[in-house]
Amino acid sequence: MIGVLILAGGEGRRMGGQDKGWCVRNNKAFIEVVLQQIQRQAERVTQTVTIVISANRNLSDYSNLGPPVVSDIRPGYCGPLAGIEAVMNEPSLSHINRWITWPVDSLNIPDHYLLHMLALESEVSFISQHRRAHYAHLSISKELKNSLSSYLDSKRNSIKGWLQSISHSGGEVHEVDISSYMSITNYNHFDTVNEHREMENNLMLR
């Protein structure tokens, strides 16, 4: 069984502290754009795909979108790895053998992203494009759950650092170059977003 985890649980520091999932571009919230892309790509996958949202704020709003919502089990904001750890430890999701991650601020992703990530059988893989590594785009075997928790227990939360620790201990870490496909676009700075939710309008800023 395959799980696709939308990473929407961060502090949004580079977005002025906003919940990035509810920032708006071209009249659509980031989370809605990403969710639609995943659903479209999942239709091409022969295996059953379960979509999950990692979130730590606005939980009822995320829940209204349909997929299950899982919050970090560690206090504070410990980064994307904490969100991955939480879903790997969620009893109702124990049947998921492999997790594919999709950051909520990655609004433009190659159409065959899921197919590429699912074709890999190494313990963990990440993608790169034009010599730039996208460490938050991962394909992870559930067998790495203990490794992930141990790394976080050591008060480290860097995805790159975790991948290096796996490699140094003899694990399989695979880099997938997708430079020949559409460029990934990450909207993770305040000034890259055209529109924002505003609290006084009861919809926009969160």
UniProtKB/TrEMBL annotation:
Residues 4-155 form the MobA-like NTP transferase domain. The keyword Metal-binding applies. Its EC number is 2.7.7.77. Keywords: Cytoplasm, GTP-binding, Magnesium, Metal-binding, Molybdenum cofactor biosynthesis, Nucleotide-binding, Nucleotidyltransferase, Transferase. Gene3D superfamilies: Spore Coat Polysaccharide Biosynthesis Protein SpsA, Chain A (3.90.550.10). One of its GO terms (molecular function) is GTP binding. Coiled coil: none annotated. One of its GO terms (biological process) is bis(molybdopterin guanine dinucleotide)molybdenum biosynthetic process. This is Molybdenum cofactor guanylyltransferase. The gene is mobA_2.
